[in-house]
Design goal:
Number of strands of chain B: 0
Structural class of chain A: alpha/beta
CATH architecture of the largest domain in chain A: 3-Layer(aba) Sandwich
Distance between the termini of chain B: 19 Å
Largest sheet of chain B: none
Order of helices and strands of chain B: HHHHHHHHHHHHH
Radius of gyration of chain A: 18 Å
Number of strands of chain A: 12
Oligomer: heterodimer
CATH topology of the largest domain in chain A: Rossmann fold
Mean pLDDT of chain B: 89
CATH class of chain B: Mainly Alpha
Order of helices and strands of chain A: EEEHEEHEHHHHEHEHEEHHEE
Number of helices of chain A: 10
Radius of gyration of chain B: 19 Å
Number of helices of chain B: 13
Helix content of chain B: over 70%
CATH superfamily of the largest domain in chain A: P-loop containing nucleotide triphosphate hydrolases
Strand content of chain A: 25-35%
Number of domains of chain A: 2
Mean pLDDT of chain A: 92
Shape of chain B: globular
Chain lengths: ~250, ~300
Amino acid sequence: MISVSDLSYGYRDTPILTDITLEIPKGGVTALIGPNGAGKSTLLSLIARLMPLQSGRIMVDELKIGTCASTDLAQRLSILPQVPEIAARLTVAELVAFGRYPYHKGRPGAEDLAQVETAIEVFDLQALAHRSLDTLSGGQRQRALLAMIYAQDTDYMLLDEPLNNLDIAASRALMQLLRQMAETHGRTIVIVLHDINYAAAYADHIVTMKEGHLGPCGAPRDIVTDALLRDVFQTDAKVRRLDGKMLIDV
Amino acid sequence: MRPIAIGLAALLALSVLSLFVGVAELGAGDEAWALMTISRVPRLMAVLITGAGLAICGSILQVLVRNRFVDPMTVGTGQGAALGILLVTIFLPSAPVLVKMAVASATALAASVGFLLIAQRLPPTQPYLVALVGLIYGGIIGAGVTFVAYQADLLQFIDIWTQGEFSGVLQGRYELLWLAAGVAALSYLAADQFAILGMGRTASINLGLNYGQVMLFGLIAISVVSALTVVTVGMIPFVGLIVPNLVSRIHGDNLRRTLPLIGCSGAALVLGADILGRLLRYPFEIPVGTVLGILGAVLFLWLLYRPARHAR
């Protein structure tokens, strides 16, 4: 379980997060949605210890963010940032292999190599394995980064808008893979999504955010309503129900 | 054939050539043996260690600063070492050589940390700015060295440290470089850590890398190797800039694979320049720093105008 209590964060005089208290249950897919600038990425970055805490407390199971060893957390939790800034000239296979670093610290064993191979297969990257990252398209690059996180094999995965750059086939494949990881391996996936249709279709829980505050949280069928779109996103889009599914009429 | 094998073969050929290039006639028997062990072999070793060490340092600094256009010998590390050795010469002239080395390493480290702090505040969107600021920063420290030397009437000394050349290398006067060789070799143990650092801050934290510790280890390695080089043979420009860039363009940035290649190529480049410097105006010598200054500028231009072709 990830538990966040009384978390506030600001940049100079501008508050970005205000008094966030939140529990993300273990196992399952939790979607984080909200308008631009709501503080979703900041929340994710703080949980992943990418930025120092200013006030409040975050626990990932028994590990306290800010005091636990970074290397312990790296075996428990991984993050895919929104704008991965990798400028190094690495091949896809080399990048994915670094996902195993938290375990082998430089001396990969047979198990590490097997995990890397699996990750490359799962994301359908065999043909690209020896291509340099800087020769790939945005979507291929995104898949390579996802494969690295997959190889890291952590209980918790934080994904900041992973559908960026992915076409509809790759987007659906990723969401199905995440569901499968949650259901069969008990993984906890926290994912920032912009398309509420994807959140409604694939998430177990939805957490909404607006202007640094927490909005309604709960199962998609309970909270995805016209009122939510109006209050959180300030838009008059309508939610339709079709064959028991929710669809947002854009 | 694997690139490292080609590199080692080229290096071996150059090494043999280097042993047989010199003004003194290579006779036979004991005299030839003495010439080899007192002068030719030490010179060869000094060249190899310096070339490999500086190239490896350049590649580590480029990872730490996350900028491909910096070289320890131009952005203050080398100048910091020169300042340290100058200060020891003035204030503690009778200090044992290891103390002098320690002081030079410490001032080189301080200068490197200073550069890193400045570089981190520059906008990452303008990579050339970091290189330019580095040149200015190194230039200011270099000017300080000249000023202090002028005041203390030691100007002729600083030439030894700033003009890199190997003609003074003899048995008994270069052995400290083996320490540099050891430190450079040790840095290979952290090749994976440096490579992850090169992937950026977020990726490093995500993988649980101890950012500060790796950074400090890298800075100390660069400072010690640079200081030992400056004190023993003097500043040698461009090796730390060109070699890592060339290798990265062709073989990428997986340092566990490329660091040996970088070391090997650096040694070959400096050795080639040293042999050239000995032959061009035979029997006179052109300092290796001058040869590399010209060679380096040409290579660097070629590098800038040529598209990368790593793992296409």
